[in-house]
Write a structure and sequence with these properties.
By secondary structure, the chain is of the alpha+beta class. It is built from 10 helices and 9 strands.
């Protein structure tokens, strides 16, 4: 688990405990070529925390009695974004029930923005439920199911009431979710510093990553998008997104955006995402709109 979370194979912890004591002795049997060295002296805070949570979760999974659930409170606070995702993926795919027949129910608490986006992305998965405790502008604290449709609905309700400033953060969250969904669904590669860039430029960062890969596969002649999808993405929806959103909220140079224009931005996001989907027919003859697997195949 430690190797998976931290993405290393040349740091190997060795744990020993006397049968009559609770004290756990931790050494590193290997550390980048060094043998039998002190974990306390060499491991950074994030590596020590990763080792601690790996030991703790391993013990919890091996415990055969009750209870069969575990509460984790902000356990990724010292991790960078890649290690945060690694830990969550390990829990989701290998430790939780029913993926693991002996697994546990996990209740995970976090106030981290990256974790929120990760939880959003998994919210449609069976057995995965994301609840968000939020403070609305009037000061009311609400607990609501967290998914993209709810975020879009909230943005639209504020826009309908003419509360553009209140709708703006919800609109941003919906745009980020939609663009990140394109990136995840089609396995679009992103720059190494993608997740740690300034939050206010995440939308343009997503657009840049998608555009660069579309241009690459178009030049290679193997892109899966049909002519209409490609033209709509390049010539209609991306320019609309840039001119109506990025120029206003990422440069601080634009004039105040109106409710109708912001409504159009949300619609543009949906249409842009649809450029990366195709119609499929199931065994009953029902047409289903599906995501392409990547930019070269469905």
């Amino acid at each position: 688990m430690f190797a998976y979370v931290m993405g290393v194979d040349d740091i190997k912890p060795n744990l020993e405990r006397d049968d009559t004591k609770e004290d756990l002795q931790v050494q590193l049997s290997e550390f980048h070529g060094l043998k039998d060295v002190s974990a306390r002296a060499l491991l950074s805070e994030s590596y020590r925390n990763a080792l601690a949570i790996s030991v703790y979760l391993s013990a919890a999974i091996n415990h055969s009695g009750v209870p069969r659930f575990i509460v984790l409170d902000d356990i990724t606070s010292s991790f960078d974004s890649g290690h945060q995702i690694n830990l969550m993926e390990y829990i989701r795919t290998k430790l939780r029930y029913p993926e693991n027949a002996k697994g546990l129910q996990f209740i995970i608490l976090s106030h981290d923005g990256i974790m929120r986006k990760y939880f959003d992305g998994q919210n449609q998965e069976a057995g995965w439920h994301h609840q968000s405790i939020e403070g609305n502008p009037p000061g009311v604290i609400t607990t609501q199911s967290q998914d993209a449709n709810r975020v879009r609905t909230l943005a639209m309700s504020f826009l309908s009431a003419g509360q553009v400033d209140v709708a703006q953060p919800w609109a941003r969250q919906y745009l980020e979710f939609t663009l990140m969904q394109i990136i995840r669904k089609l396995n679009i590669p992103v720059p190494i510093d993608f997740a740690v860039k300034d939050h206010s430029r995440m939308i343009s960062s997503c657009l840049d990553a998608i555009k660069s890969q579309v241009a690459l596969h178009e030049a290679a002649g193997d892109i899966i998008l049909d002519t209409t999808q490609l033209a709509d993405f390049k010539n209609t929806y991306t320019p609309q997104m840039v001119s109506n959103w990025v120029s206003h909220y990422e440069t601080a140079a634009g004039t105040s955006i109106s409710a109708p224009v912001m409504t159009g931005v949300l619609d543009t996001a949906d249409k842009l995402a649809d450029c990366f989907k195709y119609d499929d027919t199931d065994a009953s003859g029902t047409r289903i709109r599906k995501w392409y697997k990547n930019l070269t195949s469905n």
